[in-house]
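Backbone geometry:

***
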Amino acid sequence: MADKGPFLTSCIIFYLSIGAAIFQILEEPNWMNAKDQYILEKEIVLKKYTCLTKEGLDDILKIVSEAAGQGVTITGDKHRNSWDWGNSVIFAATIVTTIGYGNVAPKTIGGRVFCILYGLCGIPLCLVWISELGSFFGDRAKRLSQVLIRKGVSVKKVQLTCTALFLLWGLFLHLLIPPFVFMSLEGWSYLEGIYFSFITLTTVGFGDYVAGVNPNIEYPRLYRVFAELWIYMGLAWLSLFFSWNVHMVVAAHKVLKKRRHRHRHDEEPPSVEDKSNPDVKQSVINIFNFLSEKEEDYSTVIKEIGITARETKPADNINRSKSCSDILTLDHSPRHRRMMSISEVFMTAKADMDKGDQEEESSVIQESKGGLEPAECARTGNVENKDSNALDLEKDGIIFTAPAKDVTEEQSAKHPDGGGTRFKISKVNEDFLMEYDENG
């Protein structure tokens, strides 16, 4: 958002400015004519009815305006009840769908408070339901793609067919055909009908045109029911259409950005190996696959952190001190680490000694067979290996001090059968070990 924020803000400001200028050019002259016409009609009424003063006419107009604001029909002899069961259901639907025509609104304190609470719970519920309804339409498109692929239609043709059917179905069923119904039942023109359809399905809901509220028209019994179903289906289709449209624009922008970057740096296009295997046939085409893509937002990041924290639990048998109770893992003490390093030196030295003994034995065999020179070379190599090991230990920062001969006592081990063995037992003076432990 940091890099796109200023650009998008500038686009919104520019778009609003252009829209405001065009609306002002188109609508301001009509408003001026309407105002002049209103003043002229008032003067005509005052001239026609000489007993009526201007103050009296203003009082009448004020009463009429207040009655219209309460939802009372001010023309004709028929009065329409705006708060019977059927009209109340329509009003509740305009709340949860956020259409809000504005022709009917609660006027009491209790009604306004309940409207707030009702909208807080109903709007999220309706949005989730409309989203699921859009996913249902996406599943129908997937099944259609499966049928076409089984019949041997190519993938590109299936994508084109599903996309065309999705667009044509929405345009005809929700925007182009309903105005004919409104023309026959409401008495509107085709332009007024398509204007009402778009304003309703986009939840703009100005309220200047509302279906099924004219008290002078006798509507069919199921007209309002089908109108409500049409609104919900249209909201699901339009939300899916806008999501698909935005996804296509973003995908096209990414492709153009990659091409510009490749053109600037003279990079070669990606190889064919990076692309998916064309030999694998797809069994289904989902033109709305972007709905199932995982988006990393704040809530998903927090959930992943919580899952990671639960997985990395401390061991149950670990020993903790009271001052370090929050430490998850304890490392070895410095003395323990030093003893471990010394033991590693012993193991390395022992391995080198064994290797040297094996080389000496092989050299003796070679000497018995071919002379003394190979044996001398092997012994020389053995000495060099020992020196190199010592140098490596010094480079690693580990200094090993061997005990002197006067502090050690060697004793030959005896075989249980009474014979001699090649093993020797070395005893080290305890004073030397204590002095070594104190020096670290």
